[in-house]
Amino acid sequence: YDDRDGKIWMDGKLVDWRAANVHILSHALHYASSVFEGERCYDGKIFLSRKHSERLLNSGNLLDMPIPYSVDEIEAAKQAVVAANGLTNAYVRAVAWRGAGEDMGVSSARNPVRMAVAAWEWGDYYGDAKMKGAKLDVAKWKRPSPETIPTAAKAAGLYMICTMSKHVAEAKGCSDAMFLDYRGYVAEATGANIFFVRDGEVHTPLTDAILNGLTRQTVIGMLKDRQVKVHERHIEPSELESMEQCWLTGSAAEVTPVGQIGDWNFEVGALTKDIAQGYEKVVRS
Length: 285
Ligand code: PMP
Fold this sequence. Notes:
Elements: E1 7-10, E2 13-16, H1 27-31, E3 34-42, E4 45-46, H2 49-62, H3 71-84, E5 90-98, E6 113-120, H4 129-132, E7 134-143, H5 160-171, E8 176-181, E9 186-189, E10 193-198, E11 201-205, H6 214-225, E12 230-233, E13 245-250, E14 254-261, E15 264-265, H7 270-282
Helix pairs in contact: 2-3
The chain binds 4'-deoxy-4'-aminopyridoxal-5'-phosphate (PMP).
EC number: 2.6.1.42
Pfam family, one: Aminotran_4
Catalytic activity: L-leucine + 2-oxoglutarate = 4-methyl-2-oxopentanoate + L-glutamate; L-valine + 2-oxoglutarate = 3-methyl-2-oxobutanoate + L-glutamate; L-isoleucine + 2-oxoglutarate = (S)-3-methyl-2-oxopentanoate + L-glutamate
């Protein structure tokens, strides 16, 4: 992704794509002092853009690395990047990190917090799984306790075990991995929240140890509009056997049906299809 034409917004101005570099002694590279957002732009408009910008600032605050830009400035940066690259349907990646500076130890208080925004075209996150239902592996790693790491932040450090688990899943021919949390409850995928359907009602994990995704919140709203009962609760893995349908939600993943998790199978049923298609309308409305 580094060798492309285009513009990236970096620390307040647009720079050439290939020139958007950081120093090897950036604190973030050594100690994971990095937070980010993943968003999608539909027909020229970034869906829930302000909410993503607010979450980015909140993630920065949770990691004690306040980002030196306002929501309005971040909004303007994202718009500038989408426009400068001539994009209308795109993925937008904002990232903020502790740069190189006075300190090279664990403490980074004297190093600047930097920020960049890039955008590019990105099709379906799970490729053709979007149509036929994704196959998920069950990760051997567990989502950590909120007493271990700030789980409400969209922070790079939370993705280390995601990458490791996704590599294992892909080697098994799966699209992604599903995590249990530190207590053993069903948690989320490596970049998406998870929903189940049983007897016409929807069940989704509580967000006491995972990211409360913006897509998750949108989909819960859509289900309530449809008078479908939504149970946000702790879900035991043993319950998966009785679940009939399953889907994932995420800004990149959108609404992706799940056909299989480990040995459990799910149908791509009517409600899954309705929500997946409905979401495509909501993001463009
Ligand atoms: N969980 C994780 C671990 C994620 O990376 C994402 C993607 N940001 C989500 C859930 C879904 O969040 P959202 O719907 O806000 O994109």
